[in-house]
Every structure is written in structure tokens, then in C-alpha cells.
Amino acid sequence: MITAENAAHFPRVSKSPEPPDVRLQGVTKRFEDVLAVDELTLEIPRGSFFALLGPSGCGKTTTLRMIGGFEDPSEGRILLGDHDVTGLPSYKRDVNTVFQSYALFPHLDVFENVAFGLKRRKVAKAEIAKRAREMLAIVGLEGMDRRKPRQLSGGQQQRVALARALVNHPRVLLLDEPLGALDLKLRKQMQLELKRIQHEVGITFVHVTHDQEEAMTMADSIAVMSRGRIEQLGGPTELYERPRTAFVAGFLGVSNLLGGTVTTSGAVRVDGTGEIRVDAPLPPAGTRVQVGVRPEKLRLDDSAANSVSGTVVERAYIGVATQYVVDTPAGRLTVFVQSSGTAAEGDAVRVSWDPESTFVLEEAS
Q1: Do strands 267-270 and 275-277 pair parallel, antiparallel, or not at all (unpaired)?
Q2: C-alpha dihedral (203, 204, 206, 211), degrees to nearest 10
Q3: Domain residue spans in the chain?
Q4: Which of 247, 269, 287, 303 lies closest to 278, judged by CA?
């Protein structure tokens, strides 16, 4: 835990305006004829937990490597605070990186792994011992300082790598899919631990992942990337409840998208069925749109303002809910029902939802 003695070591978020910890200005990266990152402009606030989220090949890891100094941009500038670090090698930047492989020294014990960077910087021995043990306490590894990496679990090794990176008190900590090698249960546990640690130390974390749940659980802000560009930037709730593109709607969980035409300021006529009410900003009447609603927002009844008729074609128990697939004149809908439900395959049903549960995308997206 952060104490009065060690709190001064870590940068805290100030109420006064400060420059973002990371700024990318028109950053582009090409690998021969491959455009990996396309004119990316981004600001990461001081003291935030920021995630770069997207599928393989979207440019998120390349972006992280450019921030860390492992790759140089083809165009654009990278700033840490007010300092332009474009072209500087990684060891001259005030950042540290935690990789998926952990990269611990197998011949050194836990304490020596954590203290390695401080020794190279020729910090006094007493200060090294103090800071290394404080950091081991923060990551929950008290009493394990003399164990070798091979004597630790995957989660414990990940904590050692994290402590080794944080002990130098960098301006920014870069996390390159650090939980990818862990099993599902441990990964979920470490998501909460990483969030706790970031909150305690107050250092800016920039986390790369393809796991939507991981990003939603930990990050204050998420940049969803596709083809080297940011599709949408925002908080987890905003991205999930109000996606701006079909890509974001589909990448962050399951979405039901139905084609339609705007009729009035608060209504859309859905193809194959009638008019539905929408509690969201709409483009002008006559505009083609896609109406979206998440499966857990749908009900197998006609109790809500919007409803369509349909037939159950699939039913599956998925643990936290029962999943129904329903064919309707408007298209196929996926519905999550929190109880076991009574509808069976072949049953005629009504599917309904509230206007405020609806998001709208212009069809071109």
C-alpha cells in the first residue's frame, strides 16, 4: 500500500491543468508497403488508465512500441509531457514496459529482479532496498523476495515484472498484453489487481489488449482501433451504450443491428416492420440508419414501447443467462434472458425493448 513515507515517490494527479502525459501528433508508421498506423492524433491524460483496444493488425501494438521508443514513426511527433521524444531511444524516455513474456532474469531472485534497474542507475543500496521492498508490498509479494522466478506462479511472475517496471517511478507504464499468458480465472483476478495498483501509484498506464472485457474492466478511457486509426475514443460505458460505428458496436460485445429510415425526430421505420421510438440523436428524416440494441436490453414479451414479432430458432443456456436467437421480419435478433426462460425452439414470441436502450448508426458506418 502507498504510505506517507513512499507517497512522494509517485506522481499524483493534480487539480491544476497539466499537459497530458502522452501526446501523439499526426503519427504514421509504415513498414515498406504496409500502413500500420495512419495519422494518429491522441492525448492520454496524466494519471489515467488508458487502453488501446482492437483486433490483431489494427496498429495498437505498433502505437505502443512507438511511445516506448522501440519503433520510430514514419511521420508525426511523440511527446511525453512537454518533451518531444520523437527519435529518442527507449532508454532515454521516461517510460517502462511490461511485456506478455515478463522477461524476468531466471538466475536472479525476486528482489534482485525488482532492484535491477535501480542498481544500473547506481542508486544507493539503502534506497534500493527500501524502494524494492515497498514495491513488492504494493504488488502483494511480501516475503517472496528471495524466491527465483521458476518458483512462482504465472500471476506472481507478472507481479514481479510489474514491480520491476514501477520501481523506477516512470512517467508512463506501457503494458503490452501483460495478461495474455494467464488462465481465465487468474486473468480476471489480475485485471482487478492492476486497476488497484494503478490507482495507488497514480502513474499513467497505457495498456494494449484485444480483450474487450479486459479493457472495459480496467481502463478509464479506451481507444478502439481499426486499420491504424481510432474508430472511437471514450469511457467504457459510452463505448458500449453509444457506439458510433458498426465496428465498435460489433467489437464491444454482441449487437443487434436493424436497417431502417428516419421518419421523425424520435422515430425510425425499421425495414420489414413498423416504426420504433428512439431516445437518441437522429439525422434528418429520410436518412438510412442502423438501429442497434444490446441482447441484454431485449425482453421476450411486449412490455416495452418497441416490439417486433418473431420465432425462436435457437435456445442455449450460457451460464449467466439463456440465449435466444429469434427470427423477425426486421432481421435475426439475439436475446439474453437472465432466467432459464420458458420459450422453446419454434415458439412464436414478441421481442421488446425501451427507446432509451437504442443506439443509432448512420448506415454508411
Answers
A1: antiparallel
A2: 70
A3: 7-94+170-241, 254-362
A4: 269
